[in-house]
Fold this sequence. Notes:
Blueprint (H helix, E strand, L loop, with lengths): L4 E4 L9 H15 L8 H7 L5 H12 L9 H21 L9 H10 L3 E6 L3 H12 L9 E4 L11 H10 L6 E5 L2 H9 L3 E5 L14 E3 L11 E3 L10 H8 L1
Parallel strand pairs: 1-2, 1-4, 2-3, 4-5, 5-6
Antiparallel strand pairs: 6-7
Amino acid sequence: MALAALIFDVDGTLADTERDGHRVAFNQAFAEVGLDWHWDERLYGELLAVTGGKERMRHYLDRYRPDWPRPTALDALIVRLHAAKTRHYTNLLARGDIPLRPGVERLLREARATGLRLAIATTTTPENVTALLRHALASDAESWFEVIAAGDIVPAKKPAPDIYRYALERMRLRPEQCLAFEDSENGLRSSRAANLATVVTVNDYTCDHDFSGAALVLDHLGEPDRPARAVAGQLNGAGCLTVDLAKRLVA
Length: 251
Ligand code: XBP
Ligand code: MG
């Protein structure tokens, strides 16, 4: 079946948002309410095993702070912290501190020019996606994507396939007509469970993950003056993940 759409994960795939974005914003939210929680870069790498910010805070308490006295209104505290974290994170993005990864804008523009449809499937909060697109890509970039499937819109976050299935249903497309882009093992498990061929671009937090089942694993999507390197699979002499190569990957 011919390639009709590209579906992108956000965190780690469109931009390296975790270490200098989400992590920093979580710490700002903790400090703001006087909590002694602090997530350093190494700990945050471990916490990334759980997707979703609210889920990640609960996991932190269960795994690392079993003795921390739980307030009776823990659910409300988590929701309040998460709202504060979203505020801090979108402020960071508005400062333009977090750029897109190499090759992302190039591929998105090429896809639009050749009539491919675009979508997003992510566990992060919708406001975070909008802020990243607006500040790191273009003021109208939200409208480039036919579907932005994000956050709590489905009950089960990645590695469950629900968010990808939701995007496919909204676009009325079959998985064979789409190519997914991910950066993590949880993300790849999610896209593969939705039967999507998937390109992985690794980053510092995910380079040791298991990416078996990916169509191609790259260090990044590549620019003409900054060729991509294949970690697994074949770039076939190309230095960039182009629309042509994307079509061949699903053929
Ligand atoms: C991204 C995430 C997100 C962000 C935090 O996973 O795990 O939870 O770290 O987002 P993926 P929120 O790239 O696989 O979608 O705090 O907005 O939940
Ligand atoms: Mg990701």
